[in-house]
């Protein structure tokens, strides 16, 4: 029986491309459940419709994916991270049929992707109108279904699926990759496709505190890790949605839950923060080290 994995659709997204690549390398059959939003992908795990969700967490060019971060906060750890993968990304400029780049008047794109391709767009299509799409595949589908001098930023997979033409092979800045995380309803679920025990683990948390309004509060929180020689590989803030200037903080920690220093640092953080939520402790992707 194949694994049911929810990810952002429709067919041809970077998320589906990452899922197919992971499943192929692991030699595991998966049944993709393509959802209209990241929220729906996470909800599919919560409801039991999917065994896992594969969602983008951060990009090497544009940073954190807000929709995923907000879902992790809203879920309160109910869909823990059980693995991660790093997927190389290559955005193409895609048209319905062969077209001169200089003739393009509209570019359909997921806003996050348009930002990754910003320098190329400014240099090559400075007057083109950027039209928001809900995913890279939706952008390509819009071009396939429409007429006129339009293009999309998307994947080679989407171009093939929707019968379109790639007219520029790489329009991002290069060195582009997206870190995806696997979500499950059970922290102790079997490792998802392509995730192996590498010998290195990562622990992800989110925390907040009313003390954040006081000078030095965040520094004091972080000192709980530095003072125990526990490395943080990432920290990022998002609005807490209860007033201007109120934030939650995401952090990735080198080391697993159960490690004495990590546990001690988390206890120290809990003494300073109003809330610390465990998002998951899982094998680190080999590409991240």
TrEMBL record:
Keywords: Amino-acid biosynthesis, Aromatic amino acid biosynthesis, Lyase, Phenylalanine biosynthesis. SUPFAM superfamilies: ACT-like, Periplasmic binding protein-like II. Its EC number is 4.2.1.51. It holds the Pfam family ACT. Pathway: Amino-acid biosynthesis; L-phenylalanine biosynthesis; phenylpyruvate from prephenate: step 1/1. GO terms for cellular component: cytoplasm. Residues 4-185 form the Prephenate dehydratase domain. One of its GO terms (biological process) is L-phenylalanine biosynthetic process. PANTHER family: PREPHENATE DEHYDRATASE P PROTEIN, PREPHENATE DEHYDRATASE-RELATED. This is prephenate dehydratase. It comes from freshwater metagenome.
């Amino acid at each position: 029986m194949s694994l049911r994995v929810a990810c952002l659709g429709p067919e041809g997204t970077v998320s589906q491309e990452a899922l197919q690549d992971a499943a192929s390398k692991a030699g595991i059959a998966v049944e993709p459940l393509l959802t209209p939003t990241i929220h729906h992908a996470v909800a599919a795990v919560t409801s039991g419709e999917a065994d896992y969700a594969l969602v983008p967490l951060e990009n090497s060019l544009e940073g954190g994916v807000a929709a995923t971060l907000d879902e992790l906060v809203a879920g309160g750890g109910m869909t823990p991270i059980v693995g991660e993968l790093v997927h190389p990304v290559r955005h193409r400029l895609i048209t319905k049929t062969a077209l001169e780049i200089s003739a393009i008047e509209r570019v359909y794109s997921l806003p996050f992707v348009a930002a990754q391709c910003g320098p190329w767009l400014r240099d090559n299509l400075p007057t083109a109108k950027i039209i928001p799409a809900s995913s890279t595949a939706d952008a390509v589908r819009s071009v396939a279904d429409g007429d006129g001098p339009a293009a999309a930023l998307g994947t080679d997979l989407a171009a093939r699926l929707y019968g379109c033409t790639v007219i520029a092979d790489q329009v991002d800045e290069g060195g582009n990759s997206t870190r995806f995380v696997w979500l499950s309803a059970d922290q102790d679920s079997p490792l998802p496709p392509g995730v192996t025990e590498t010998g290195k683990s990562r622990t992800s948390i989110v925390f907040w505190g009313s003390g954040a309004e006081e000078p030095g509060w965040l520094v004091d929180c972080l000192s709980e890790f530095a003072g125990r020689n526990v490395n943080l590989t990432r920290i990022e803030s998002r609005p807490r949605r209860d007033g201007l200037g109120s934030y939650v903080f995401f952090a990735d920690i080198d080391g697993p839950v159960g490690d004495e220093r990590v546990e001690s640092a988390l206890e120290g953080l809990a003494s300073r923060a109003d809330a610390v939520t465990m998002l998951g402790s899982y094998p680190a992707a080999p590409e991240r080290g």
